[in-house]
């Protein structure tokens, strides 16, 4: 996994004043809103006996552990140990990792890493995706859904940004196996300041040949190719935009990296057509959008879950690249850039641990307070370079 990124992990509307657990790279996190409605994200392992805070409750701005009632504030600092005598100080070590989080585009973004605020990469800017719920619904009909995969998130992301598989995998929804050629395209890089935040491209896909009655009705009337946008916004959002004769359908999908072999696609579809109440009631247009979007994922499932190796290789030459793979190459290069910065965490069993105890991705407070270096009960997961260096020292 790559640390020090803003991962979209959940739909914003799901989070309220009841604790909500999400799993990211095998580490459980708990999300809730404080009394001001601000989102809070902590490591979900109580440092007393390892209970899940998500099973507890929110008390004022704090989260209370379900086991012995310890309370942690919005910074993850324990402020109350009920079993201790009133007035006795709370030990400095009583704190959990707190991760910065923001709500944007209808998603919760969690900064999974320890960089101070001024060094963090920005959030990706999603084109045409309004920040607030009402604005997103303006001129659009919005439908959301989820799809769970037995596959690593990077395989799912590369699939979501890939146009060349449509004629084969999606021949009944939007690809035509008789016309699989991908025209030459320009890859558009998306930047925020100096940061490369994504890559997209547009190709014209031939629609599937008409079937059944449409074969007769459409005879002699060629359907024009459909301009289709594809791409990825780093670290974990894919983009699909289909320009149909009746309007535009855009799908942004947050691919949540649950653990090494599991991911969940949390998608938001926006369509500019069939937005009128009659279309929604009479044509059941929302239900139809939901079904059509899920069909795309079901079509992809067997192929993506069957890819070997399960993880996207680090070496570009470990799989063959052709011209139409430009966006995947851009994604792999972006990933390599982060690995070069020392942000790869190569231990896949995050959160659990045998007798040596659980480990967590380090949060900003660890770096911001060097005097607390020993004040963390849970050990931090080391980046790959640091781990390698330590093992070399141990061996010497
Ligand atoms: S395990 Fe959380 S308070 Fe004891
Ligand atoms: Fe697909």
What distinguishing features does this structure have?
binds fe (ii) ion; Rieske Iron-sulfur Protein; about 400 residues; alpha+beta; 9 helices; Naphthalene 1,2-dioxygenase Alpha Subunit, Chain A, domain 1; single chain; binds FE2/S2 (inorganic) cluster; about 30% strand
List the helices and strands and how they pair.
Layout: E1 5-11, E2 20-24, E3 27-33, E4 39-43, E5 57-59, E6 62-64, E7 71-72, E8 78-80, E9 101-104, E10 107-112, H1 133-137, E11 141-149, H2 153-160, H3 166-169, E12 188-192, E13 195-205, H4 213-217, E14 226-233, E15 237-244, E16 247-259, E17 262-271, H5 277-282, H6 285-305, H7 326-340, E18 359-360, H8 364-368, E19 379-380, H9 384-395
The structure holds FE2/S2 (inorganic) cluster and fe (ii) ion.
